[in-house]
Amino acid sequence: MSEQPLFSFRNPWFGASVGVTAAIAVLAALAGLIWLPLAQPDLKLNGIWDAICSAAGVPRASSQAASVQPDFKTSNVVMTSEMLTRPDQVSIGRGATLAQRCAICHGPQGVSDANSPNLAGQFAAVTYKELNDFKTGARVNTVMSPFAANISNQDMLDLAAFYSYLPRVPSGHLNGSLVAPLIVTTGAPMRNIPPCGSCHGDIDNKAGSPWLGGQSAVYIKAQLQAFESGARRNDISQQMRNIARQMTAEEIDEVARYYEAQP
Amino acid sequence: MLTNKRLILAHFWLAFAVFGLALVLGAWQMFVRSPLNIWHFNPEFYYRAVTAHGSAMGYVFPTLVAMGFGYAITEAALEKPLVGRRWAWAGFLLVAVGAVVAMVPVSLGLASVLYTFYPPMIANPFYYIGVVMVVVGSWIWVALMSINLAIWKRENPDKPVPLAMFANVAGSYLWGWTAVGAALEILFQILPVALGLTSTIDAGLARVLFSWTLHAIVYFWLMPTYIAYYTIFPRAIGGRLYSDAMARISFILFVVVAMPIGVHHLFADPQVGAGFKFMQSVFTGLVALPTLLTVFTICASAEIASRLRGGTGAFGWVRALPWQNPIMLATALSLVMLGFGGAGGLINMSYQLDTSIHNTQWITGHFHLIFGGAIVIMYFAIAYDLWPHLTGRALESFGLMRTQLWLWFIGMIITTFPWHYVGILGMPRRMAFYDYADPAISPQAFSVSISAVGGLILLSSGILFLIVLIRGQMAPRDEAGAYRFSVPIHVPARIPVALNGFGLWLALMIGLTVVNYGYPIAQLMALKETSVPAVYVGASR
Lengths: 263, 541
Prior knowledge:
The complex is a heterodimer of chains A (263) and B (541). With 263 residues, chain A is mainly α. Helices cover 47% and strands 0% of the residues of chain A. Chain A has 3 domains: 12-56; 89-165, Cytochrome c-like domain (Cytochrome Bc1 Complex, Chain D, domain 2); 182-260, Cytochrome c-like domain (Cytochrome Bc1 Complex, Chain D, domain 2). Chain A has 12 helices and no strands. In chain A, helix 5 (124-136) runs antiparallel to helix 7. The mean pLDDT of chain A is 90. Chain B has a single domain, classed as Cytochrome c oxidase-like, subunit I domain (Cytochrome C Oxidase, Chain A, Up-down Bundle). In chain B, the strands form 2 sheets. Chain B has a two-stranded parallel ribbon with strand order 1-4. The interface between A and B is large, with 37 and 49 residues.
């Protein structure tokens, strides 16, 4: 069997197999890299080389002039699931001192009846992100923004660590018998609304999503309405704005009352 | 002439034990996510079970079958004892220990990433280390197949390589090269993150590397089935193989075009350019060719056997086939499932049609029909055919075997057809819970319930299969004689050098891989800003 050379054009199997394989590859490449991209009017290509680069997936540096710039500040905090999950004691201690400035609205133990958010037991990454957004102007509030305007990064980390260290205090409106609304447990798939609980704690917690149990109903409702109207825009990728726009007024009332009654 | 019977039996028994356990998990998953179950379990258990089921059925079970069958083919077809017996045992131990090492973190809930890994999800490192051990164990087999073939060719320079051995080595080379993608992904992308050396991962590149493995692994699973079609089926029904050359060409086509096509699993991924998706789609279409050649050759071989038995007429010969023979039955049922599964596959490989079924239950239905159906039913046939030669005891429960094969076929159809259908309705895959009370998905409830019943039928068939093998193990001694493969009508005395070895075909396989994967991989490696934070599974939040 071995007298015949394998890798030689005198071997018809070699010529045929290499030729056919190469021909198919070349034809597929011509079609996929040149013809198909050029046949698509939406792509707006400048010639063959541009078509090849586009179809090969070469990333294009979009010019700054052409890109749409938002006319408002966007959040610049990058959230990860590991972020601020290992607090240190010094940071908590410093945070406790700094928090005296916050007590007038948020309560000396991070809980208040002033319809401002209860911060006791809130995830550190959440408090840190919101402080950051108030500081940069990505989130705006008449009362809160001036407090955050000149705060240092270390102070924000310390405050976040302190509040996450405080135990959650049961809400004055605690009502364990309240049945979770459908929007909390299963969302509304046909309106593209995931279950509230899949990020905000009942089912799962996702990085950057606050714990909502025991928050004031007035506050939750106001924030959902702010997301809906676009007054609040510091949610990364618009996820809360997209959800709030799809929610009905009744659903907003329902979830606000439900979360207020949760521990 | 099987000399290392214990080695081969060990592979088959471990394979079928793993298969039995994973089958129980599969049936349980079908049940818990169906409307027959009231929502009262921890969804984490579902993902654990899916990871265990997939890893066992995808990596351990078919690999062990291919290895065990490969050793049997080497000894029976080359008519000499296996060279490298100790290495073979070492490979077996690596696979066995690797399976345990991988399954411990899975059962502890530290590795619920599903068997396709899905970075940036990162599991406990021992899960990946276990999978690597399984792959390394199988690479020992790849090397042994190659070495045994080389030694035989040196001793028999003027004889054509027996078809069974040729096909077996084709399968081993295909696997050797295919597994490289996942190995690169685990070693250079996933393990550094799992071990805590870095905290970000290039999920896009990792997915491209996995696609290198992900599609051709199916053809590796398929190889024992095709070997059984060509070299067991015609002999078992008392006929002859229609064409030896056609068989070799089919296996060669698998080696060349089965691998550089995995990007069709990434049609919805943004990190690969549309041009390369198109090119790989073209080659995916070409893989239908060896299957069509095989269906033709096997049907022709069946017709030869039937006419030898007195079958007549254009289609009347089908009746004269030995339908009482389990191998006949298994092959026919396998081809039916291959037909349906293949038709579904043509939809998956089309860029446009794929968009309507991508990541839906259609895909799960598709690969269960092809792998669980067409392929695994021939694993049963291989075991039934080989068992008397391995144990030295006759398998006599033919009625039980036929019942088992029919139950597997019926169960697989009942499981996968509704699965395909709910996929078209848009039911997503990889989810533990569906609220069938929601009007939007309540029309799927009936189909999903039917599908769960199919899962229970499959479980009963799997139990019957193990009963048949155990009864065979306890039957009285009865020497089965030498193990033979089917003979072609025209026994080749001389064949072209290209059809007697793999040099040319391996060169084409590697060349096509470079053409189809080279640029996408190089580009993703060169881009700096493509890494994302890892999501550690089972880590405290």
